[in-house]
């Protein structure tokens, strides 16, 4: 339970609290399970504080310093965490439902299994953060840095990830159903077995991404850059690759029949044993593509025989 002296000092207000912390810099702050709901703790120095299980519902923590704070199982639903420093903070299993975390710094924070549904994380720094198995349904994640973050098995249904950086991100088995990923950077991301049904990936960059066994059914990838991406075993039913760059991508053994590749570049693409019958290949560049054993539309198959 919370140290009552610490709690009484804090509820006096941020200015008094910060002054007290300066005078007691060696103190180990214990605010575990404290009820701080609806309080205004703007710019409060809560660095390294123990806030395990604390009630922070609707609390205003704008510009607060929570560097390395322990917020395990804390309830921060509806809290204002705008521009908060949460670097290396432990937010495992915390409830951040509807919280405002815009422009906050959460680099290397632990948010494993945290609830962030409908939270605003726009322009936040989430690089190297652990969001494994976290729930981010409908979360606002546009223009966010998630470089090298761990999102394995995370729930990102209907999340807005437009213009964000997810390069080198671990998205194995993540659920991105109906997510918005327009102009998003997913270079070198691991999307093995990820669910991307109906996701909008127009103009997204997926250079060298691992999409093996991913579910891209109904996804739109208009103008997306999939250079060197591995799509073996992926579900591509009804997906749209118009204008996409699939140079040197691996689509071997794929059922690509009836898919739209209008204006796409398939230079050097591996299409061994792929089924391209009835695929829309208008103005497609197949220079140096590996079509060994591939099933081709009648006209294209004839031209290949002539060569």
UniProtKB/TrEMBL annotation:
SUPFAM superfamilies: Pentapeptide repeat-like. Keywords: Repeat. InterPro entries: 5peptide_repeat. PANTHER family: THYLAKOID LUMENAL 17.4 KDA PROTEIN, CHLOROPLASTIC. It comes from Almyronema epifaneia S1. Transmembrane segments: none annotated. This is Pentapeptide repeat-containing protein.
